[in-house]
Design goal:
The complex is a heterodimer of chains A (about 425) and B (about 240). Helices cover about 50% and strands about 20% of the residues of chain A. By secondary structure, chain A is an alpha+beta fold. Chain A has two domains: about 1-50 and about 270-420, no CATH class; about 55-230, no CATH class. Chain B has a single domain (about 20-245), classed as Clam (outer membrane lipoprotein receptor (LolB), chain A). In chain B, a hairpin with a 2-residue loop joins strand 1 and strand 2. Chain B has about 240 residues and is α+β, with helices and mostly antiparallel strands. Chain B has five helices and 13 strands. Classes of the chains: A alpha+beta (about 425), B alpha+beta (about 240). The interface between A and B is medium-sized, with 24 and 25 residues.
Chain lengths: ~425, ~240
């Protein structure tokens, strides 16, 4: 039966060409859109996890209230002990303390007087214990001039800041901020290198310093703004499970300095962005199925008119209406499969192209506060290979199901009369 | 009859208005009481933060309203930090980095040494009469002292606060309570004098509490341990060179 229908479709291209073209185009767009959204979501998760959120983050309850301001004065204390406990309780995760601070970078002249000043966002990360942070932040690739810090007292500055303030490698600069207890703090650093991450929020004014230097500078002995936790591979369900067990044990509603663990998805704008992406994908597929069904319904009706005689003859020679209806649906199923394969293949070609080349969106991110690469890429995943099958086949079959109903309206008694004319 | 009624009404109005003194006179008396030609003081600033309290000891030299120099004596981390104010400029010396930095722009709005005061508060011209228009709006008892309530509205563009509501002791001419508002009318800071002492003829605050209402915490206490008025201060004190000494 299948073979018979397939042969019929291939020999009578007017039955299959238009629906195949329509469905293939739609499936191609679905695959491309899915891979694009996927790439955007992956990039959003990866970039934010690296620079901002971790896969989970531990902060104090007081810090969480003002988390957008990164109030390190409300940060965590006794961090070494806390990380030891965390490593024992959650051995599958890697824990990294960080201090984020705002400050004023001051370049002195030869007399020690201020030459230029600019605002910076400081990242205090562990640069010397192991290479975890260096790899995570991709510092080797981001380095545009000079070297990574090799000893205490050295600093990495974003190339944009260096250009703006006229800072060169080996220049001595002072960062002015306030200590964990609010006193004015100033610390001298030697510029060892300049970095460009390709992430607007970072490139606009980031400086990276070893966390030991920051602790000295901000009077934060064994303290940190946050402790970030990383799984070997991001898994949203695991981050929620770990956070729930941690918070049950350690969060105390009566102590504003008790710790609370926040999974990546619940931090900042991540929930909003990721939910919006999920919703958009669902909406796109729904619209696709709906519109395609309407188009294919119409196409099926046109086809029904064109095949009016053929169906009449088939009814006249005794084929049941149900059998004809089922054969039309089966035909549409075959058309759907064929079109989906073609559409998926073309969609994957475009998706892979965008995965390797990407699109520069830096102009759109000029004032963005979201951590996101300036080059947006698609991301082909195993799901990209079959995501088009659902809308492709469903739309095709749905079109045939609706348009085929006309068969049941044919009056068998009048068939010969109709055929005579 | 009509004339008598009008005269009574006028007299009543005169009595009513006569009850409130002229705001400018009142503020001038406050300025005269609070500010001297020069002064040397030692004080303690206790910052009651969310994580506990921190005490800083400060020695200050002030001449007229344009010049002041302060040196932090303790705690050890802050000891040696010096601040110099010359007219509308402010420099800070930090011994750990051996740098002198001029505080300007948005830094002026930052908290001064973690307290509820900003550098801008410190920079504000001392004599209220020069910055604000005054209006006496009522009277109230504060800490068992009769006070006039005076509304101050900025008459200069660069005032740190658009309006201030000040409760002035009727006899001692001390601003026992002060509320500072932004342009939108939002309350930003409060000041309260908790204890006063008499030096010569003038009454002076001994213990004050500043509170930034936008910040959590119990405010900043400022205690004057000793103060000497109208003493000779060498000119070299108010120079940038003195910051590194």
């Amino acid at each position: 039966m299948l073979k018979f229908l397939a042969k019929g479709l291939m020999r009578d291209r007017t039955r299959s060409l238009f629906p195949i073209l329509i469905i293939a185009a739609g499936v191609m767009l679905t695959v491309l859109f899915f891979s694009w959204i996927n790439g955007y979501a992956m990039m959003l998760i990866q970039d934010n996890a690296r620079f901002e959120t971790g896969h989970v983050k531990i902060v104090t309850r007081a810090y969480k209230e003002l988390i957008d301001q990164k109030p390190y004065d409300l940060g965590l204390m006794n961090v070494t002990e806390k990380i030891e406990i965390l490593s024992n309780e959650y051995p599958q995760m890697h824990w990294q303390p960080r201090i984020y601070f705002g400050g004023l970078l001051d370049l002195p002249d030869e007399k020690g007087e201020t030459l230029t000043q600019g605002e910076v966002i400081g990242f205090g990360v562990d640069l010397f214990t192991d290479s975890f942070e260096q790899d995570l932040l991709n510092l080797n690739d981001a380095l545009s001039q000079g070297n990574l810090p090799t000893k205490q007292g050295e600093i990495l500055i974003s190339s944009e800041v260096a250009e703006k303030l006229g800072i060169n490698i080996n220049d001595k600069v002072t960062i002015i901020g306030s200590t964990m207890y609010g006193s004015m703090a100033m610390h001298n650093f030697t510029v060892s290198g300049m970095v460009r991450f390709g992430i607007q929020v970072m490139d606009r004014g980031a400086v990276i310093v070893d966390i030991a230097d920051v602790r000295l500078f901000l009077d934060m002995e064994d303290s940190a703004s946050e402790i970030l936790g990383f799984l070997p591979k991001y898994n949203e369900d695991t981050t929620f499970e770990i956070s729930a067990t941690f918070n049950e044990t350690y969060t105390n509603e009566d102590d504003e300095f008790s710790e609370i663990m926040l999974p990546l998805r619940t931090q900042g704008q991540m929930e909003f962005l990721l939910t919006a992406l999920d919703e958009r994908m669902g909406m796109f597929i729904f619209i696709f199925i709906f519109v395609m069904s309407l188009v294919l319904w119409n196409s099926g009706l046109m086809n029904g008119i064109r095949r009016y005689g053929e169906i009449g003859v088939r009814l006249a020679i005794g084929e049941s209406k149900g059998h004809i209806y089922r054969s039309l649906i089966l035909e549409s199923f075959l058309i759907g499969i064929a079109a989906t394969i073609i559409g998926t293949a073309i969609g994957l070609i475009f998706s892979y192209f965008l995965q390797y080349n990407g699109i520069d969106v830096s102009s759109m991110l000029k004032d963005s506060k979201v951590i996101m690469s300036a080059t947006m890429r698609a991301q082909v995943t195993p799901a990209s290979y079959f995501i088009g099958f659902f809308p492709g086949v469903i739309a095709s079959v749905a079109g045939a199901v609706i348009s085929g109903i006309g068969i049941y309206k044919r009056n068998t008694a009048q068939l010969f009369k109709e055929l005579e004319t | 009859m009509k004339k008598i009624f009008i005269i009574i009404l006028l007299l009543f109005a005169i009595i009513l208005f006569a009850e409130f003194p002229d705001g400018n006179d009142l503020i001038r008396k406050v300025d005269d009481n609070m500010y001297s030609k020069n002064a040397i003081s030692t004080s303690r600033m206790i910052v009651h933060g969310r994580r506990g309290s921190r005490t800083m000891e400060i020695k200050s030299w002030a001449e007229s309203e344009d010049k002041s120099f302060s040196e932090y004596l303790s705690p050890p981390r802050d000891a040696g930090t010096k601040m110099l104010k010359l007219e509308d400029k402010l420099w800070i010396y930090n011994p750990a980095s051996d740098r002198i930095i001029q505080i300007s722009g948005h830094l002026l709005r930052q908290s001064m040494m973690g307290s509820d005061l900003s550098y801008e508060d410190m920079m504000e011209e001392n004599e209220l009469i020069k910055i604000y228009n005054t209006e006496v709006t009522g009277e109230e008892i504060i800490n068992e002292r009769d006070c006039w309530i005076v509304l101050l509205t900025a008459k200069v563009e660069d005032a740190a606060y658009h309006t201030k509501k000040v409760w002035i002791d009727k006899e001692r001419y001390l601003p026992l309570r002060e509320e500072r508002f932004g342009k939108s009318g939002k309350l930003l800071k409060t000041t309260e004098i908790k204890e006063v002492f008499k030096i010569g003829k003038r009454w002076y605050p001994k213990n004050m509490v500043f509170k930034d209402v936008l910040k959590k915490g119990k405010g900043t206490e400022f205690i004057i341990d000793s103060i000497e008025f109208d003493v000779e201060i060498p000119k070299a004190v108010f120079t940038k060179a003195a910051l590194r000494k």
